[in-house]
């Protein structure tokens, strides 16, 4: 048998996902500025680019999930920076950010507490309260691409995006409102049973 360190690959996926998300944020800002300047051709081009990069991000996310499933025996403790030395491959210096899946249950619980739907900020306030013991120092760092946005909020918003695609949150809720779906309620119940 040979030993390997799947957490190094997970770290690389996390850095790649963060860079892709930064690119999407940049394209979004360029598109918003073009729209404000009434340069609709440039705004349309930015929208198409953001769509392409978001689809690519979803593929990388799926690959990370597939990799994680290959090494499901690796415990959460092995993911911690105390147990694993990580090569310095990019901006994440003091450890890995908290994985997107870790936000699923807190988001669903927050929505359940708030009656099934709520404004994004209300949900994020409850998510922060419930994840204070889980979030790492690196999660509280501001993004280089958006200096007013802590990494954990960005990750929670991407988790919400993934949850919509997985059917755990409704995709037809008004802009700025997060809403739990029937599948999300079932997911939360099954998590509670475990």
Instruction: Specify the overall morphology.
Output: globular
Order of SSEs: HHHHEHHEH
What count of helical segments does DSSP give?
A: 7
Radius of gyration (Å) = 18 Å
CATH architecture field of the largest domain: Orthogonal Bundle
The first-level CATH class name of the largest domain: Mainly Alpha
Which class of secondary structure composition applies to the elements? mainly alpha
Unreliable stretches: 74-90
Beta-strand share of residues: under 5%
Chain-averaged pLDDT? 82
Number of strands: 2
Features:
194 residues; mainly alpha; Arc Repressor Mutant, subunit A; 2 domains; 61% helix; 3% strand
Chart the SSEs and their pairings.
Blueprint: H1 6-36, H2 40-70, H3 76-79, H4 101-113, E1 117-119, H5 120-131, H6 151-165, E2 177-179, H7 182-193
Antiparallel strand pairs: 1-2
Helix pairs in contact: 1-2, 4-5, 4-6, 4-7
Structure description:
By secondary structure, the protein is mostly helical. The protein folds into 2 domains: 6-79; 101-193, Winged helix-like DNA-binding domain superfamily/Winged helix DNA-binding domain (Arc Repressor Mutant, subunit A, Orthogonal Bundle), CATH 1.10.10.10. Helix content is 61%, strand content 3%. The chain has 7 helices and 2 strands. It has helices spanning 6-36, 40-70, 76-79, 101-113, 120-131, 151-165, 182-193; strands spanning 117-119, 177-179. It has a two-stranded antiparallel sheet with strand order 1-2. Helix 4 crosses helix 5 (120-131) and helix 4 (101-113) packs across helix 6 (151-165). The two termini are 32 Å apart. Mean pLDDT is 82; it is low at 74-90.
